[in-house]
Structure formats: structure tokens, C-alpha cells
Amino acid sequence: MASSPSAQLSGFLTRYTPEVAAVAKAALARLRRRLPGAIQLVYDNYNALVVVFGPSERTSEAILSIALYPRWVTLFFARGAALPDPAKLLKGSGTTIRHVVLANARDLDTPAVRALIDHAVERSKPLDPKGRGRLVIRSVSAKQRPRRPS
Question: Which of 66, 60, 72, 59 is nearest to 32 (CA)?
């Protein structure tokens, strides 16, 4: 019998250092509370483990995501280039996506990051406020970079 998506995600997280996994787990818990009803799409890609939050299973409707790398966790905004960022937190130079590297999950609680999340949610398709949300494992790459620093 296949394991549940939650069990699979937990298994993916164990491949990271305890520090990176702890930041990711706490960040995911905060985002789940902040975005009730969001669908979470998991991509265990070649470069990173990514959990996308959105109103549906369409990646084109993504609001934000958490990506784990061997040394850090990053909060990505799908349409971050259009977000107001008076604190100049957003990094990146692409046409749409911007990011913030999280030193710890409490960074999500700072007023500037909360404002970015609020703006991103306001500009997205609405989440189902009564929805329970769910976790969907979308892909697991057969070949992956090491999940821990060398």
C-alpha cells in the first residue's frame, strides 16, 4: 500500500539536515494556518523540494511556495515582481517570481513578510475559506542533487 502524501513529505524532509528540515516544517505549519483551504502541491525536483500553495491543483494559480535547498529554505512568490515591497525584501530579477530566504520560520511572522503574503493572497484566485486543503505529491525526480551540504 502506498504511503499517504503526509508520510511521503515527511520522508522527503528527513533527507535534509535537521536545521533545514526544522525551518521547513515550522514554515509549512505557519503557511497552512495562514492559508486554510490551500491545495499544497509537492515537487521533489532535481534541485530542491518544493511545496506550492494555491487555490487549486493548477500550478498556474500558485500563490507562493516553500523550497528547500541543502543550506536554506526559501519563500517564493509566484507573482512577486508585481508585489509592493517597501522593505525591499524580495530578491530576484526574473519577470514574475521573487523570493525571500528564511533564516527561520519566524521570518514569516514579521510585518513586512506578512504584508507580502497578504498582497499575494489578495491578488490570487480566492482560496476556499471552508476548504480543508490537501497535500498532493505531484512529482518525484528519479535523479536529484544531494539534499545535505557536502
Answer: 66
Q: Strand order in 98-102's β-sheet?
A: 98-102, 73-77, 64-68, 49-54, 39-44, 134-140
Indicate the residue type of 8: Q
Q: What is the pLDDT of residues 12-28, one digit of tens each?
A: 999 999 999 999 999 99
Q: Is residue 11 classed as helix, strand or coil in its secondary structure? A: helix
Secondary structure letter of residue 1 according to DSSP: -
73-78 long-range Cβ contacts below 8 angstroms, 24+ apart: 73/20, 73/23, 73/24, 73/27, 73/101, 73/102, 74/99, 74/100, 74/101, 74/102, 75/27, 75/99, 75/100, 75/101, 75/102, 75/107, 75/108, 75/113, 77/116, 77/120, 78/54, 78/120, 78/124
Residue 1 has pLDDT above 70, yes or no: no
Nearest to 126 by CA among 41, 65, 38: 38
